[in-house]
Amino acid sequence: MRTAIRRSADATRVLAGGLRTALPAMLGLAFAPLLILATVVFPDALAPVRRLAEAERRRVAPLLGHDVPRPYRKPEGGHWRRVRAAVADPAAWRDLAWLAGHGIGGVFAGLTAVGLWLAVPYSLTMPLWWQLLPPGTVTAFIRVETWPEALTWPFLQAVVYAAAVWWLVPPAARGQARFAGALLRPTERVLLEQQVERLTETRTEALESHGAELRRIERDLHDGVQAQLVSVAVRLGLAERALRAEPTAALSLLQDARTGIEDSLGHLRGVIRGIYPPILADRGLGGAVHALAGGQRIPVSVSIPDDLPRPPAPVEAAAYFVVAESLTNVTKHSTAGHAEVTVDGDGAHLRIVVRDDGQGGADPVSGSGLLGIRRRVAALDGSASITSPADGGTTIEVRLPCG
User: Fold this and answer.
1) Which residues contact 253 (CB under 8 A, 6 or more apart)?
2) Over 60: is that where the pLDDT of 270 sits?
3) What is the pLDDT, as a whole number, of residue 200?
4) DSSP secondary structure string for all residues of 339-369
5) pTM over 0.85
6) Cα–Cα distance list, 3 to 10, 51, 114, 119, 248 (Å)
7) Which residues of 21-51 are buried (b: 16+ CB within 10 A; e: fewer)?
8) Rounded distance between C-alpha atoms, residue 395 and residue 138, angstroms
9) Dihedral-angle region of residue 259 (phi above 0 means left; psi in -120 to 50 means alpha; beta otherwise)
10) Sign of CA dihedral 278, 280, 284, 289
């Protein structure tokens, strides 16, 4: 009984909350023909309807258990192309259909649900006050004019109202959410277009990330290894000339050349490590992240389940670089005193969260490190969110598909 009452109360709150969009929808329904005609002059004339539909998507998302994607196409071209696109966009007509259905049905459902709850105590208390009103003005299915009627019909009416609250209000709330989800979501064609657009963007970002990585490797080889090898070659040439005339000086030059070769090998190992860290092959993602955390100048706590499924090599490398770049940013820019790294997953996705208690205010657009994280993640069709309020620390959350 208590569960049923709670379910009906929750459903009533849903329908009552729907009045916040249903009442404007009813008002907008009266102006819908004018808005359609206005699109000839102003292609964005239906923007108020879109904003109202967006508010409804946010409202029903928790009820449906998933977000309702935006179905709109991006306006492109000149004025008349935008007008044709606005008129031909299926999402616009679906929004108007939702406007009509929700404007009428949502107002009726919301007011009826609230009214049924008020009608139950009204009916139950009717025998206490029915005689105080003029004869023939009190009704409970019929006019209550005698005591036998006052002691029977109001209670029967309360039972009917309570049954309606019990049996009809929850399905009405579910139906309202499904109605909005069905009309305000993208069509299959729009979903395919959005997927193609998203894949095009991720392909571009992947190419940019690949190009930036190649330029980094080329720069490291040119400025580091190549310069060191040229220096070694010069020293060996000088040693060859000095070998006959002054063997002691030649020995010193040979020792310098040997040191230069060792430095070049170390630099070359660093470049190779930047392509795919050997520690990932040796110790896996968990060991590599612990090694990264242990090498920072501030305390870094790490949380990784022991039974975490090992992701594919590209995903594992991307996760490693996300953690490495994030911790580098923490060390350089955040003035944080502590950071924490969380890595978990369910086999289908890998989630990485890097959080610090620094000054916040990180700009995910202008920062090269954060932009590099976004590009690397986008190349694998993953998602990255960066939250960095002023004086609130920075949180970077990345989700990578493992399929």
Assistant:
1) 235, 236, 238, 239, 242
2) no
3) 67
4) EEEEEEE-SSEEEEEEEE-S-----TTT-HH
5) no
6) 10, 36, 19, 21, 95
7) bbebbbebbeebeebbeebeeebebbeebbe
8) 63
9) alpha
10) positive
Task: Reduce the DSSP state of residue 386 to 3 states and report it.
Answer: strand
- List pLDDT tens digits, range 7-57: 999 999 999 999 999 999 999 988 888 888 888 888 888 889 999 999 999
The 3-state DSSP class for residue 65 equals coil
339 touches 380 (CB < 8 A): no
Helix (H) or strand (E) holding 302: strand 300-303
Among the listed residues 103, 96, 82, the one whose alpha carbon sits nearest the alpha carbon of residue 39: 82
- The per-residue pLDDT for range 328-359, each reduced to its tens digit, is 888 877 678 889 999 998 878 899 999 998 88
Q: What is residue 98's three-state secondary structure?
A: helix
Query: Taking a C-beta distance cutoff of 8 angstroms, is the pair 400, 349 a contact?
Result: yes
Whole-angstrom distance, CA of residue 359 vs CA of residue 306? 32
